[in-house]
Design goal:
The complex is a heterodimer.
Chain A (H helix, E strand, L loop, with lengths): L4 E8 L7 H23 L4 H14 L19 E7 L4 E8 L5 H11 L4 E3 H11 L12 H12 L25 E2 L2 E2 L8 E6 L5 E7 L9 E2 L9 E3 L3 E7 L1 H7 L1 H12 L3 H11 L6 E7 L4 E5 L4 E7 L4 E4 L3
Parallel strand pairs in A: 3-4
Antiparallel strand pairs in A: 1-7, 1-14, 2-3, 2-8, 5-6, 7-8, 10-11, 11-12, 12-13, 14-15
Helix pairs in contact in A: 1-2, 2-3, 7-8
Chain B lengths: L4 E9 L7 H23 L4 H14 L19 E7 L5 E7 L5 H11 L4 E3 H10 L7 H4 L2 H12 L23 E6 L5 E7 L20 E3 L3 E7 L1 H7 L1 H12 L3 H12 L5 E7 L4 E2 L6 E8 L4 E6 L3
Parallel strand pairs in B: 3-4
Antiparallel strand pairs in B: 1-5, 1-11, 2-3, 2-6, 5-6, 7-8, 8-9, 9-10, 11-12
The chains are: A alpha+beta, B alpha+beta.
Chain lengths: 325, 312
């Protein structure tokens, strides 16, 4: 019998000036989600079910960028995407272009379990949701006042506001002293929510991973990020479960989640070494982070961004919720 | 200096060994024509990224292959095309899905790569992007062939999703001669590129996305190799088969041929997987575990092959 482990994230790259009360809210949410997952694991719920349960909770809470609280497209609407993967048989499901499904992660799960396909998108995915009878809400349900304000600021800066996309602090020049960190050309003086994810290994050693997001603030309609892409934002195998967050394009190019597993499988290294390797060698100039568990009950978080909202726990009683290095 | 190499495919699957001449010959001619086109382009020094786009455009324009004109139909009787392209040296890539009017999806994927900060655009937005860039579009009638209307009807009768090239029952009713298309190329300087394009499955659910537009599944290129896959998309996605070749070379130190064979046999779906790959050293390999795969390749040292089944 193995030992369970769980990790959750609420996105990589955090404004260092994020108001303390928002930091506290984030930590509380991560803690609540961890406890939810721990309770489920203690009652022998399978890894894939725990992943779905926890990501649903993150989607339902408006704090992070997924489900309610998703970042807005250039049109002010919400277009969500999610993916989930069960490592034991490498089964997977993914959805993109979701506009009315309350919990995209559960729709991804249904694609995996109830459709002949792995990935459904836009109206086809919405039709499938209705046929499956999942909970449907108006698009306005997902739109928060905070994000309406963020979109306005993003549009004023005439830029795509990458979730937490910020240059490394060490590179900040003299001109940047007023606003030491920028987000894709925009001063990061505002709080932005982020992608969410969860990875779990259960007592049976089964690994699973799930990722959900609203995508980039002010994104083009129809832009697909890394979150729904198996191998990029999400991957799970017999050895590990991985969920990534950060600059989507860098994650896609490197198939970041898949590479953690590939490095373990083909280089024969452990989870920590594999995570360190991909963060160091696979991201090129991109900024991203990931959470990962192994079938041995290990848990690792890795990132090269300015912080990452994360929490993890193991059966041994270890539990940590953190934002910075 | 190493030599250039190129490989292309028109899809793999259960291609009947007794494929009638009137079906076999036009496809072999198309493969030869596309190979010649690619080889001339490489010889004249065109970058591999341009070469794979050029060759895939030609395959998309050919009505006998399942991409662009000749794409198979969704359950709704519509066409929903997808494509992706990747440059090995920079690992820049572009992908599109859910296209209904763009004549050459591969060129739209290239535009996404070069003209947007994104990698992947989908459905209505991808169509709008195509219009904003003046890409050539056409009415659905351009893409829909009589053969594919019959194929959908047959698939519906059997009430199942039909894999590219899966011979429907009864087989004589149609050999489903359609499949994903792809091209990989490397030049003398070791620059690599890969491109893949498809109409997907016959009778697929509208909105279904397969492996073709997914970087790592249907298409991958880096500094070591360029790969394009074909076969049962759902399982190619979970095995990230194109990336698998690159990962096995990089992390396990396998040769291109060994990595590609392993990826098809161990990471891809049993009996429904094939791929084409070239390495930075100018090697080429085209393994498949299905009955057949329409394929062609050539290298600078004079090797050339055009084939459909395992022994031909």
């Amino acid at each position: 019998m193995g030992r369970w482990a769980i990790a959750v994230h609420g996105g990589a790259g955090i404004d260092p000036n994020l108001p303390v009360e928002r930091q506290e809210e984030a930590k509380q949410l991560l803690t609540r989600c961890l406890n939810l997952g721990i309770a489920a694991l203690s009652s022998n719920i399978s890894a894939i079910d725990v992943v779905e349960l926890v990501v649903r909770e993150l989607e339902t809470d408006p704090l992070f960028n997924s489900g309610r609280g998703s970042a807005l497209t250039e049109k002010g609407t919400v277009e969500m995407e999610a993916s989930i993967m069960d490592g034991t048989r490498r089964r997977c499901g993914a959805v993109s272009g979701i506009t009315t499904v309350k919990n995209p992660i559960s729709l991804a799960r249904l694609v995996m379990d109830k459709s002949p396909h792995s990935y459904l998108a836009f109206s086809g995915a919405e039709d499938f949701a209705r046929k499956q009878g999942v909970e449907i809400v108006d698009n306005e349900y997902f739109v928060t006042d905070d994000n309406v304000g963020m979109l306005k600021l993003a549009k004023e800066a005439n830029s795509i506001l990458f979730d937490y996309r910020i240059p490394p602090m060490g590179c900040a020049g003299a001109a940047a002293t007023e606003s030491p960190i920028q987000m894709n050309g925009l001063p990061i003086s505002i709080y932005a929510p982020e992608t969410v994810g969860c990875v779990v290994v259960d007592k049976e050693g089964r690994c699973a991973a799930g990722t959900s997001t609203g995508g980039l603030m002010n994104k083009m309609m129809g832009r697909i990020g890394d979150s729904p892409l198996i191998g990029a934002g999400t991957y799970a195998s017999e050895l590990c479960g991985v969920s990534c967050t950060g600059e989507g394009e860098a994650i896609i190019r490197s198939t970041l989640a898949r590479d953690v597993s590939a490095v373990m499988e083909y280089k024969g290294v452990g989870l920590q070494e594999a995570v360190d390797y991909v963060i160091k060698h696979r991201l090129d100039e991109g900024f991203a982070g990931l959470i990962a568990v192994s079938n041995k009950g290990e848990v690792v978080c890795g990132f090269n961004s300015n912080g990452m909202f994360r929490g993890c726990a193991t059966e041994d009683g270890f539990m940590e919720v953190a934002m910075w290095e | 200096m190493v030599g250039w190499a190129i490989a292309l495919h028109g899809g793999g699957g259960e291609i009947p060994i007794d494929l009638p001449d009137e079906r076999r010959i036009p496809r072999e001619m198309a493969l030869r024509h596309c190979l010649d086109l690619g080889v001339s382009a490489l010889k004249s020094g065109k970058p591999p990224l341009d070469v794979v786009e050029l060759v895939v455009r030609e395959l998309e324009n050919h009505p006998d292959f399942n991409a662009g004109k000749g794409s198979v139909l969704t359950a709704e009787g519509t066409v929903e095309m997808e494509a992706s392209i990747m440059d090995g040296k920079t690992k820049r890539c572009g992908a599109v899905m859910g296209l209904t009017t763009v004549i050459n999806p591969i060129s739209l994927a290239r535009l996404v790569m070069q003209k947007t900060p994104h990698i992947n655009l989908a459905f209505a937005a991808a169509e709008a992007f195509a219009r904003a860039h003046g890409v050539e579009t056409a009415e659905p009638s351009h893409f829909i062939t009589l053969e594919n209307i019959a194929r959908l009807k047959q698939a519906k009768e059997f009430n199942r999703v039909q894999l590219d090239y899966t011979a429907p029952t009864p087989r004589e009713a149609g050999d489903s001669q359609t499949g994903t298309v792809g091209c990989v190329a490397v030049d003398r300087a070791g620059n690599l590129a890969a491109a893949t394009s498809t109409g997907g499955y016959v009778n697929k659910m509208a909105g279904r996305v397969g492996d073709t537009p997914l970087i790592g599944a249907g298409t991958y290129a880096n500094h070591l190799c360029a790969v394009s896959t074909t076969g049962k998309g759902e399982e190619i996605i979970r095995g990230t088969v194109a990336k698998e070749v690159a990962a096995l070379m990089e992390y396990k130190g396998l040769s291109l041929t060994d990595a590609a064979a392993y990826a098809v046999d161990q990471s891809g779906p049993i009996g429904t997987c094939g791929l084409i790959a070239v390495s930075a050293n100018g090697e080429v390999t085209m393994p498949f575990n299905s009955t057949g795969m329409f394929r062609a390749c050539a290298t600078e040292d004079g090797y050339s092959e055009i084939g459909i089944w395992h022994n031909n």
